[in-house]
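re: ur question from yesterday

yeah so i grabbed the chain u mentioned. its 119 aa long if i counted rite. heres the sequnce exactly as i have it in my notes:
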Amino acid sequence: MKLENKVVLVTGASSGIRNEIAKLIAKEGASVVVVAKRDENLENLVNQIESDGGKAIAVKGDFNPEETIPTGFNTAINEFGRLDIVINSAGIADIIAPVADMGEGVWEVDLKVDLTGAI
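ran it thru and got these structure tokens back, copy pasting raw so excuse formatting
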């Protein structure tokens, strides 16, 4: 297993490719901390990983990067004793519209999660 004894944090893991990344990483032997906004999807992901023999824990957040990412880091350290890899892939696309039609609030939320969250 390529990632045996590693601890990986995956943001935005409740759906899509990020969800599949978390499952693949667990199959490669890593303990996985999954962070996302959709709590029910995270629990399903953790259950899938654990039923396949892996280790995972979920951290739910509204994806305020200033709070959620440190919580994910701390969870990794507290639960698994370390953090080796971060896959910071959270992103949102709640409203698909031309930028001029989005409004300032939507634009700010998208930038906060998609751009600032990666930093």
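noticed a couple things. Residues 7-91 form a domain with the Rossmann fold fold (CATH 3.40.50.720). also The chain has a mean pLDDT of 84.
anyway ttyl
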